[in-house]
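Action item from last week, closing it out:
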Amino acid sequence: MCSAQATTDSTPTPPPPVPDRQGLAVLLVEDTPPLARVYQEYLSDEPYRMWLAETGRAALARLKEAPPAAVILDLKLPDMDGLDILRHIRQQRLPAAVVVITAHGSVSNAVSAMQAGADDFIVKPFTAERLIYTLRNALERRHLSEQVDELKANIQRRAYGGFIGSSLAMQAVYTIIDNAAASRASVFITGDSGTGKEVCAEAIHARSGRTGRLVALNCAAIPHELLESEVFGHVKGSFTGAVADREGAAALANGGTLFLDEICEMDLSLQAKLLRFIQTGSFQKVGSGAAQRVDVRFVAATNRDPWTEVEAGRFREDLYYRLNVIPLHLPPLKDRDGDVVEIARDLLARFAEEEGKTFTALSAEAEALLLGYPWPGNVRQLQNAIRNAVVLNNGPLLEAGMLAAALERMGGPLAGGEGAPAAPSPSSGANGTPPLPPVAGSEADIQPMWRVELAHIRRALALCGNNVPRAAARLEMSPSTIYRRLRDMAPDDSP
């Protein structure tokens, strides 16, 4: 029960007023004019706009006209029960804090009010300090509750634009996109290869409200000598092969968004022209002296550290500051908590339908492997692994062995990546086997192979914090094999 029901002979000192409450509307529902004037006087030094309703109907009319931030509600009204007003506020999901006034000895009414959704109650008679304190705290709790509800709603977003994932890392990305989309400010997206930078640009454009199109240009995929023409266009005869006038990405994106992917690959001389374009909104086609003005929103992306490129002299510092108005970093897949499983389930359903396979779910061991694997290629690598496993197998369950085999076929860390055996050196013996050095000890020291393997598995598990999928990746075996080895070997593990 809230502390507001405590006796009035010892009232706590109210907290200092909160500055952002200035101008909040408070509706006082009280049918006795002298009491209403007393309560209004109690709150006269508080930064509230006071509204008064002397009947239940007047209160409902005021609530419909303009919902207040808080309601001080007497339960005994001449035309209706105050609980009906409280239920109306909660049923309509009005964001108002409600403090109920009840008579001394009617605690059961206060309990009913709290069950109906009141934020607090106060028992007559009460002092000014008690009313101030109770109202302030009710407003604070209501505000915090709204923030928590908003956070929960955001966390529940498992899909956003082209993204899939409900991790906190991606919730932060979604929030930045929400806030930045409608702005004209340039966005600079950074992140490892395969994290979804183009998907991010598409999400920004889709929520921008801009009527033009999104034009994407990969600066790394176009030869340097042709990139200026791709960005700004050219006129006929401006260079060999220019047989006709051609519009560039800048003109095509008029009214929309120009997405420059892998922008750190752009030549310095073209960076200077791009900077001028961003500053002025106008450009010239290659071979033309006429300036053309467009309305373009800029989104750039790179899988490098752009500031490192600036320090190395490969990227203009002034261009960096022009583009990096809103920085947005996409986290690698390994830092996205359980998103990898959500994405894999979505991909499995999509690819199974496309390939005409009967897969319906991932096995528990496959999900464990997904969570323990480092995914250096991020979502793009995950897409390839799931499609490879779907094409070469059939369901209903996608097993860990199928997924591990797919990763091995693609040359991931399970086969040739980090943690894999090193390639034989030129000085190795036959078939790449190095000559054996002299060994100390005797034949009695030789342990059975199963015991050596079991000890090695246990050591790997200890080094990986008992994370079976991670240990499996390091040992180049599937998690199911580890479980089977531990089950089959451990009972007989005796000297």
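Closing note: The longest helix spans residues 128-155.
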